[in-house]
TrEMBL record:
Domain DAGKc: 151-200
UniProt domain YegS/DAGK C-terminal: residue ranges: 233-392
InterPro entries to which the protein is assigned, alphabetical: ATP-NAD_kinase_N, Diacylglycerol_kinase_cat_dom, Lipid_Phosphate_FormReg, NAD/diacylglycerol_kinase_sf, YegS/DAGK_C
Species this chain originates from: Spirochaeta africana (strain ATCC 700263 / DSM 8902 / Z-7692)
Highest taxon in the source lineage: Bacteria
Name recorded for this polypeptide: Sphingosine/diacylglycerol kinase-like enzyme
Signal peptide: none
Region annotation (Disordered) ranges: 101-143
Gly residues bias locations: 113-127
Length: 406
């Protein structure tokens, strides 16, 4: 029953689009990706409340068949395992790429590749990098009627990790940013990258009461060529260690409630990268060289970034924060300083504005991108990080201002 309620939410999100002028004039279709394991979607009470909210707001039950009959796509996918969101993003990108090659009057069927949720299936492939869709960073426009081919509306429902996976798959697919619009709904344990604060705002956007603006990204390229995208913050070291342990512990049924968060914070107090083989070397914007015992390195798509349950890691215009190694006793007050954004005044903190960073390190180190964590090995270095100012275009409430100033 819980899974069916999640599916019902997805159908009513589709129905909100189909019941509006947006369906007739502004989008070529709507593709919803939901992560049933995301923090809020995993809670039965929350799911029932959200579904009741959609029903009260008059969001009809969307029809996938009716969309197909009129030459549009309406699809719903539920992710089933880690990385599935990326696969679905590639599938969506492949479909968008097909649309771009077809005449507007020619309907295009999404490819079926067996990576769907049971509601629908899809897979995709591609090789090229993202395009900026012709907008300048932060430029907004009404989400209105267009003379050119209408874009596909992609709705992701989950936490920051879900949004990051789907968007990364879209960028990896090689489709043009002009071919789709993204709307990220906050239903995870971490919701720093969401485009709307809640379901009421989401319904307004889905019904066309929205504006568009560009979304920048942080692209991290490992030595082997793998690309990883973050649309809020990518970080190395201490902070990524907290994310890694948080992700591990919150899957444990032995820990009640939010106990895992406390344990993850305690583990981080004892984390220190090994500098026996060498220090961290940074080359910022191809000119500034730095070699230090860096315990935390965070790079945001822009400045003014918040993550990790309210930490103001990048409180100003600078989008790079590097902190030198500290002992356990000195780390304790630093945690509180992060929430207030006061760590920028700490003598061991370095802040910069950077568009590219080359990172060299001879050891293993934790890494995270929008809440998705892993451990980088020595062979993954050197790592190239760069900011893509106009990676994708998102839709948000008309009165929300620039989403990148979150």
């Amino acid at each position: 029953m819980h899974r069916q309620h999640i599916i019902d939410i997805g159908h009513r999100l589709i129905g909100a689009v189909q019941d509006s002028n947006c369906w007739n004039h502004r989008v070529s279709g709507v593709w919803v990706v939901m992560n049933p394991a995301a923090g809020l979607l995993a809670r039965h009470g929350v799911v029932r409340q959200v579904l009741a909210q959609l029903v009260r707001a008059g969001a009809p039950y969307g029809s996938l068949d009716a969309a197909q009959e009129c030459g549009r796509v309406a699809r719903l996918d539920l992710t089933r395992y880690p990385g599935h969101g990326w696969e679905l993003g590639r599938a969506i990108g492949s479909y968008v790429h097909q649309l771009e090659k077809q005449a507007p009057a020619d309907p295009v069927e999404p490819e079926d590749g067996g990576c769907g949720s049971g509601e629908s299936n899809g897979s995709g492939d591609g090789a090229c990098g993202p395009e900026d869709g012709g907008r300048q960073p932060g430029e907004s426009s009404d989400f209105g009627c267009r003379s050119e081919a209408a874009p596909l509306l992609v709705v992701t429902v989950g936490g920051d990790g879900t949004h990051e996976e789907v968007l990364s798959g879209l960028l990896d697919s090689g489709c043009s940013a002009a071919g789709f619009r993204i709307l990220r709904l906050p239903m995870g344990s971490g919701n720093d990258a969401a485009d709307v604060p809640g379901m009421n705002h989401a319904l307004g956007v889905l019904r066309g009461e929205a504006q568009e603006s560009t979304v920048p990204a942080v692209e991290t390229v490992l030595a082997g060529g793998e690309r990883i995208y973050a649309f809020n913050v990518a970080s190395f070291g201490l902070d990524a260690c907290v994310v890694e342990w948080t992700n591990r512990l919150k899957r444990s049924w032995l820990l009640p409630g939010d106990t895992y968060k406390l344990i993850a914070d305690l583990v981080s107090l004892f984390y220190t990268p090994s500098f026996k083989q060498g220090l961290v070397k940074l080359l910022i914007d191809g000119s500034e060289e730095i070699e230090r015992d860096i315990v935390l390195l965070a790079i945001g798509a822009t400045g003014h970034r918040v993550y990790g349950r309210g930490k103001q890691v990048l409180p100003g215009e600078e989008n790079l924060c590097a902190i030198r190694n500290l002992g356990i006793l000195k780390r304790l007050p630093l945690k509180g300083m992060f929430y207030r954004g006061e760590h920028v005044q700490h003598p061991n903190t370095m802040m910069r504005r950077a568009s590219s960073v080359r990172i060299e390190y001879p050891g293993r180190i934790y890494f995270q991108a929008d809440g998705e964590s892993r451990v980088l090995q020595p062979e993954d270095f050197p790592v190239q990080v760069r900011v893509l100012p106009t990676a994708v275009v998102h839709v948000g409430p008309r009165d929300s201002g620039d989403a990148d100033s979150r």
